[in-house]
Amino acid sequence: MNSETSGTTLSSRIASLVHAHFNALPTRSKPSIFPDGSREWIPMTGIVAVKGENTPLETLTCLTVTSGAKCLSASHIPRCNGLVLHDCHAEILAIRAFNYWLLTECKGLLFQEQQSPHDALNPDGAEPSGSSFIRRRSTEHGEDGHKPHPEWPPFEIQPDINIYMYCTCAPCGDGSMELCMAAQEDATPWEVPQTQNGHDTEDTPNGDMFLDGRAHFSLLGIVRRKPSRTDAESTRSKSCSDKLALRQVSSLLSSETSRLVAPTKNVYIAGLVLPEEEISRVACERSFGANGRMEGLAGRSWPEKIDHDKETGYQFRPFQILSVPSEEVAALWCFAKPKPVTSPALTPPKEDTPQTQSAKKSKPGNASAVWTLAPTYCDPSEIMTETGSKALPTLRRSKTGLYETVINGVKQGNRASAPGARGASALSRAKLWALYHNMTSDSTLTSAQVGDVSAVAPETRGAQKPQESTYMKFKEPHGKEDPSSIRMQAIRDAQQVLKGWMPNSGDEGWGLDVLADSKKRKR
After folding, report:
1. Which of 98, 299, 406, 468 has the fewest CB atoms within 10 Å, i.e. the most exposed one?
2. Reported confidence tier of residue 488, pLDDT bands at 50, 70, 90
3. What letters, b where the CB count within 10 A reaches 16 and e where it falls short, cover 282-317?
4. Looking at residue 138, what DSSP letter applies?
5. pTM of the model
């Protein structure tokens, strides 16, 4: 921590760092500003790693920056074939971007070990790598000389790292319902009459109601869809509040990274950082806290018996809610959603003011920005292959690992109806699975370098095709003590507690052959 930042709070330092990175992005990734002064608005999220928190050597590193406010309708999901992002809300893109970064960090560490095999492992199995973020787990054996069960993946987040998520606005859904009600001229909870097509509610497999994002304000503590226009086709994407609540149990790890990185406490969100005016303490405690709707998960762990000295395993780990003064955020962020300007009913304005005109014209931006930090180590020859770009921007002295502009779930310039492999975002299901598969099937890596990856990744190393023919097969656990099985049980138990969880299924039946792009590049 340097002298310039020692007097500021951690939440303010996190917010300032994320905004500095977003501001450095190219203009094409930002909301439009129109000639009349009106502008689009967009939520923005960043994930920051804090190393050595509350010590003189504390350092903050921005890992991801994302923006977005769109998601796909339910009818579009079966046509995605793993190539289209379902949910482009900033918070969800940030989590996917974090997992992309984590995969590349693991891959970079394997590459570094290949280049310097004598530095790969200490005799005791500890990894003295140069990565500030991840390390190899030490090899442990029980009293009988056998490896413990479950046998966790080979990597873990460095123990002095805490991960924070910063958002420019409250997550949609249950965590912001009081804010939505307060923004109405009449803040009394109200219910939307059921429409003829029944879009405002839907029965879940458990018999609970699955509510639209802004419907039925009188019902709180329940799972909701992403909010949308009343005339728009409904979605089955759960609200950001619900997905973040689930991450308090499942961690930030995805299906891919959970096979490489162990679920220690450092891979959970330590704190959610929000502008002060975007926080309802009542809503946050109800939505995320141990005394709210998650109460039934307090004290639980998966597997049931966890060595709490090592704290490896899935647990309910509620994050802190940290605030940033609203005036600080206002000075940093010009793309916030305009606040509704209301006037007393008895004295309506004779004409629109610039503020009311701006609020009426304002709409959410269509483009989503995706940025991730470059891995500590990487093979320079693969940068063009994985990102599709020879030159990547450097933001605030942070080298770029991935930079994309996404529209309607695919990279800018492509159609969501027919994206093809080149149109798929690096954060798409197909691309993330392919990245993981290429890592674990790389025939140039020795078993000593890969370590226990082969134990948790059932693919045949060096094979041309994955053993699992479809994405659905890939996600299936391979035994009761398989870490993937433990993770899935934790998720199922958490979804049971989160009443109203509706699966967004229909995009699992494809294989990695969807990435075989038949279109030739233009010369």
Report:
1. 299
2. very high
3. ebbbbbbbeebbbeebeeebbbeeeeeeeebbbbbb
4. P
5. 0.88
